[in-house]
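Chapter review: from sequence to fold.
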Amino acid sequence: MSFRTAVRQSNVLPVATVGAAAWLGLTVLQVVGTMDPLWGGESVGQTAVTGLVGALVIALSIGMLLVFLGELGHSSPGPQTWPPEE
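The token string follows.
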């Protein structure tokens, strides 16, 4: 079963993917809001560097989810029929 077939058969998958992206977006905002200042902050706990790395990883995850949704709309390349028709 391909992703396209799964989406055609289940309307929950795209909604769940968009919901996950929204949840991750809110998590990025929470991480950025709790970060210490870049300069002059404490070196114990959630420092600015760890907050930036965490926000970057979450942003990349959101990007991968958006690419996943974008790929679902493409109709080609599709699987070849079996047995091959000649």
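Two observations follow directly from the output. Residues 4 and 74 are 9 Å apart (CA to CA). The two ends are 24 Å apart (CA to CA).
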